[in-house]
């Protein structure tokens, strides 16, 4: 980045641009995780006859760990 920027204003622009990339990807990862969880809850509820609300509570309890795991394996 220092090779690209000639002054502090240009450096701030480059850093802001890169932060925007990271923010966008993290949001997409969260949405993907939530959609996968909802689909899994739906399939599990339909195949077992269990209450989707109870399955969803269990899924939400595990969701933070799944998000951390997905972020830990995410690459730029």
Overview features:
rod-shaped; 0% strand; 76 residues; mainly alpha
Topology pattern, helix = H, strand = E: HH
Task: Tell me the total number of β-strands.
Answer: 0
* Proportion of residues in β-strands: under 5%
- Give the helix/strand class: mainly alpha
Q: Could you give a short account of the major beta sheet?
A: none
Tally of alpha and pi helices: 2
Gap from first CA to last CA: 15 Å
Provide structural commentary:
By secondary structure, this protein is mainly alpha-helical. It is 83% helix and 0% strand.
What is the secondary structure topology, with strand pairs?
Elements: H1 8-48, H2 52-73
Please outline what is shown here.
It is built from two helices and no strands. The chain is mainly α and 76 residues long. The chain is rod-shaped.
């Amino acid at each position: 980045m220092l090779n690209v920027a000639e002054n502090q204003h240009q450096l701030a622009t480059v850093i802001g641009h890169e932060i925007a990339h990271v923010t966008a990807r993290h949001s997409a990862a969260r949405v993907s995780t939530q959609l996968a969880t909802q689909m899994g809850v739906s399939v599990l509820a339909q195949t077992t006859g269990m209450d989707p609300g109870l399955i969803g509570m269990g899924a939400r309890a595990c969701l933070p760990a799944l998000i951390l795991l997905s972020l830990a394996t995410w690459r730029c």
